[in-house]
Amino acid sequence: MGQHPNPLTVRKADHPIEPLFLKRWSPRAMSGEPITDGELKRLFEAARWAPSTRNEQEWRFLFAHKDSPHWPTFFDLLAPGNQGWCKQASVLVVVVAHKFFSNTGAPNPVHLYDAGAAWQNLALQGAAMGLVVHGMAGFDYDQARTALHVPEDFDVAAMIALGRPGDPATLPEDLRQREVPSLRRPIEQSICEGPFAF
Question: Which of 20, 30, 31, 42 has its CA 20 to 30 A from that of 180?
Answer without folding.
Answer: 42
